[in-house]
Amino acid sequence: MDQNRPPYWLGEGDKVPDPPGAAVDLIRDAVLGAGFGCAPIWVRLPVARIKVALANGDIDLAPLGEQSFYPAEIALPKDKAGNIDLERALHNQVWVLVRTRDNLPLSTNPVQYFKGKTLGIAQGNAYAARLREAGLTLDEGARDLDRNIEKLRLGRVAGVVVAAVAPAHLKQALDKYKGEVMQLPQPLLNVRLWLAFNDNFYRAHPQQSEALWTWLDKNRNRLGYVMQRYRKD
Question: Which domain of life is it from (predicted)?
Answer without folding.
Answer: Bacteria
